[in-house]
């Protein structure tokens, strides 16, 4: 069953001294799943106390560098440590070729037990321990998908890099936790629209329509200070958890 989540990278576009780019850990009773793997995710993942033996799945939303820039290094380190446990990577159709090209041009061979699932060809799949993953495409500059992870009783939805859209509401319907991007404050909503992103107010409206239990915001522009985003509340609860581990 689902146990907790932790946002170990929550900066949009560019990492800062204090904020890493996108990476979220979702822990079940028996294993961990990583959603996106931006630059520097490995070090933040290790610092947070996660273990190779528990990492069973990596889910990728889209191919922009701030969401996959740490993936090849993480898989390289996994190779160096001779980690032999199976790892399933779920993501856009280019993901496997991207990995193979990077390893090939780096002169690396791969003997890891990696499985690849193309999310453009499916909208639902079952993984270990009766956990279900539901997938819907979002609206971004390049193909991008949102994920819903459910154990039947509880569910967590992760949506980032998208304009507000009906698929976001559908995917998040009645979820316990919705983690949604808020790259720009609502006073910059025209810039958000131009860059295919969402504001905090727009994310709150999605949470309202979907009737979620709690809204958590992430993927913040450098223009947004911690003081700014700490003011964001929805249904009486703070939308900000930074890198705290939170029970689902």
Note the main attributes of this structure:
15 strands; 8 helices; 24% helix; 248 residues; six-stranded mixed sheet; globular; seven-stranded mixed sheet; Metallo-beta-lactamase, Chain A; alpha/beta
Mind sketching the topology for me?
Layout: E1 2-9, E2 23-28, E3 32-35, H1 41-47, E4 55-59, H2 65-68, H3 71-80, E5 87-91, H4 95-105, E6 114-118, E7 124-127, E8 131-137, E9 145-150, E10 155-159, H5 166-172, E11 177-181, H6 189-194, H7 200-210, E12 214-218, H8 226-229, E13 233-234, E14 237-238, E15 245-247
Parallel strand pairs: 3-4, 4-5, 5-6, 10-11, 11-12
Antiparallel strand pairs: 1-2, 1-15, 2-3, 7-8, 8-9, 9-10, 13-14
CA distance, first residue to last residue: 10 Å
CATH class: Alpha Beta
Radius of gyration: 17 Å
**Strand arrangement across the biggest beta sheet:** 6-5-4-3-2-1-15
CATH superfamily: Ribonuclease Z/Hydroxyacylglutathione hydrolase-like
Percent strand: 25-35%
What's the number of extended β-strand segments?
15
CATH architecture: 4-Layer Sandwich
| Helix percent band | 10-25%
**Mean pLDDT metric:** 97
Short characterization:
With 248 residues, the chain is α/β, with parallel strands linked by helices. The chain is 24% helix and 29% strand.
Structural account:
- With 248 residues, this protein is α/β, with parallel strands linked by helices.
- The protein has a single domain, classed as Metallo-beta-lactamase, Chain A (4-Layer Sandwich).
- It is built from eight helices and 15 strands.
- It has helices at 41-47, 65-68, 71-80, 95-105, 166-172, 189-194, 200-210, 226-229; strands at 2-9, 23-28, 32-35, 55-59, 87-91, 114-118, 124-127, 131-137, 145-150, 155-159, 177-181, 214-218, 233-234, 237-238, 245-247.
- The strands form three sheets. It has a seven-stranded mixed sheet. Strands 7-8-9-10-11-12 form a six-stranded mixed sheet.
- The longest helix has 11 residues, at 95-105.
């Amino acid at each position: 069953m689902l146990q907790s989540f932790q946002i170990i990278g929550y900066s949009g576009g560019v990492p800062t001294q204090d904020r890493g780019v996108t990476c979220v850990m979702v822990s079940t009773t028996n294993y961990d799943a990583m959603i996106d793997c931006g630059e520097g995710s490995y070090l933040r993942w290790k610092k947070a106390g996660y273990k190779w033996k528990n990492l069973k799945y990596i889910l990728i939303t889209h191919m922009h560098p701030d969401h996959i820039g740490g993936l090849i290094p993480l898989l390289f380190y996994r190779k160096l440590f001779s980690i032999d446990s199976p790892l399933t990577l779920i993501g856009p159709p280019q993901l496997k070729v991207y990995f193979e090209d990077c390893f090939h041009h780096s002169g690396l061979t791969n003997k890891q037990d990696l499985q690849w699932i193309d999310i453009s060809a499916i909208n639902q799949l079952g993984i270990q321990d009766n956990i279900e993953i539901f997938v819907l495409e979002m609206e971004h500059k390049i193909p991008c998908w949102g994920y819903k992870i459910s154990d039947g009783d509880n569910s967590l939805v992760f949506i980032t890099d998208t304009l507000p859209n009906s698929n976001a509401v559908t995917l998040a319907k009645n979820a316990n936790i919705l983690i949604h991007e808020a790259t720009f404050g609502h006073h910059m909503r025209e810039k958000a629209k131009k860059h295919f992103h969402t504001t905090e107010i727009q994310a709150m409206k999605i949470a309202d329509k979907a009737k979620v239990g709690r809204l958590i915001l992430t993927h913040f522009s450098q223009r947004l200070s911690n003081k700014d985003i700490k003011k964001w509340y929805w249904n009486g609860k703070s939308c900000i958890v930074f890198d705290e581990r939170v029970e689902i």
